[in-house]
Structure formats: C-alpha cells, structure tokens
Amino acid sequence: MSRTHLPLQALQQAWQQRNPREKKGLALVALLLTLALLWSLVLDPAWRTWQLAPAKQAELDRQTQRMRELQAQAQRLQSAPANSAAQARQWLEASVRDLGTGARIQVQGDRATLSVESAPADSMARWLSQARERAQALPVQAQLQQVLPTQKPAPSSTPAATALATALTSAPVPLSAPPADTSAMHWRGSVVLRLPATP
Q: Which among 87, 64, 51 is positioned nearest to 196, based on CA atoms?
C-alpha cells in the first residue's frame, strides 16, 4: 500500500470513530470553511466590482464626453477656412482693444506678441480662445502675472489662472459663461502666438 493512502485511511478511520453528533459538527465546520473560501475567492471580488461599477461608468462617461468635445473642436478647426497670416494679423489687431487700453499686439514674421498691462482675466481667456478659433493663432509662450487693478502682482493660483491655462492649452472657454470670481482679477505680461502659415 502506498504512503498516500495511509493518511486517507487514517482520516476515514477517525471519521468512522466519531459519533453522529461530532460528525454533524465537523460537517458544519467544513461547510462554513467552504462557504468562506467561496466568498473570498469568487463572490467578494464580484461584489466589489458590482459596487464600483457605477462610479467607473460615470468616469468613463465623463471621459467620453470630453473626447467628443475635443473631437467636435478638432472638426470645427479642420472645417474652418484656412486663414492667411494677413487675415490672422488683421483679426488680432482689431480685437486687441477688447483687452483694455494697455493691450498691444506686435507682429514679426509668423509670431505675434500680445502685451497687456491690466487685462481682465475673463476677457483674456475669451480672447485667447477666439484667437485660436478665428485667427488660428496658437499660443507658444506666456509670461503673465495676476494683478488686482490697484494692487501688486499675485501668485497665479486662482480660478482666473485656471481659466487662462485652459484658454492657452485646450478647449475654448464658453463665451457666455466666464470663469467664476474673475471679475476683479487682471493680467499683466505678454503672450507669444504663432500665426498660420500663408497658403
């Protein structure tokens, strides 16, 4: 007889020597252990996945919506008629007055440098967004400081900074809904934009 059968025989003998009450208790313990193992290996992971599913679905929905917005923006930019550098320059020079009396634009080659002394934050974000869409002028460099109209420069960490960063890097800021709490914030400094190539 092989050695593997010896432990099995010993277990069978031990089982047969137990009275019916002990056998019921051991069977109950074995059932509970089996259920605990089944829960930890199969049911618990499935339960956790089911609980987290709504949050993950909501996050996926947000990402999908963002991708659709970016796709729509890209399609608008692709379908827009190509502007020449002269048209872009004309739009930039005409629209810079929206940024206040201290705003100036200088064009050299394929670069336009916007200088502002105290441009309202919401107007600045809107202007940069429109410059991307209407003049196809892309910001390539920015050196700006936030200022209150009557105070010294402040660190760029408010909602106005977030709105400007969005206008510089991603989707346009909605024209009808300027960022919250930016009415008193202004910008001082310069932004360099790359003009479209002449067709």
A: 87
